[in-house]
Amino acid sequence: MSHKKYKIGITLSGGGAKGVAHIGVLQALESAGIFPDIISGCSAGAMVGALYAAGFSPRDIYKLIEHRSLYSIIKMGVPDKGMMELGYFKKLLTENIPHDSFEKLNIPFYCVVTNLNTGKYEIASTGNLIDYVIASQCIPLVFKPQKIGDYLYVDGGVLNNLPVECIRNQCDVLIGVNVIPVTFSDKLSGMRDVGFRVLNLSLKLNMEERIKLCDYIIEPSTEDFSIFDINKSKTIYDAGYEAALPVAEILAAQIN
Questions:
Q1: What CA–CA distance (Å, rounded) separates 78 from 82?
Q2: For residues 215, 9, 218 and 27, what is the CA-based torsion angle, rounded to 10 degrees?
Q3: Could you read off the pLDDT of 92-141 as tens digits, one per residue?
Q4: Any bridge partners for residue 217, and if so which?
């Protein structure tokens, strides 16, 4: 094992409500004595990653987001009155992180967003934390884009759902957590199925090579859940925990 600046890095994918699985993954790693030294995240992974980097334990993060009321505004499809805002998420972050700065986090953290004006993804790691974390969760056509400076930003997963590039060369071991594994079936019975098929094609393309850059990949069994199934948070959390146990055991044997 080489000796880079950080020992363990972890990158957390986007995935909507499936992102609760990230919390289970982090809990399984901690239970085995594995504590990531550097984190990157996209969308739901950015939310969990920011809270973890701010010093919250996995159990504390779960308590913050398990209440369905925080997600009551999220519904499948385009709202009748236009795109929704992520006010609940912003309130959660503002009330629980005592600063709005990447630099003041306990653990280095990188957040990926998609710049609608330039058509490129960007990695944020300095400056105002909360705006970028919120922007990374702005699912197109569901949530309003987040304006930061002169640009409009949306979900980082549009172009980079597993931001490994920013931390790969900074850590000895990189763990990738993909909570939205791409699956296909012959069933395409309506616009919802077509929409998710298009999403899956995009995610498959932008994650394939990035997954190869990870030393370990954890993919919780979330195929039976929607990205809006926040009311199933406990089951999704458990899926993350179970999926991480084999990797946690291997790393514990290597490091401890």
A1: 7
A2: 140
A3: 899 999 899 999 999 999 999 999 999 999 999 999 999 999 999 888 77
A4: 176
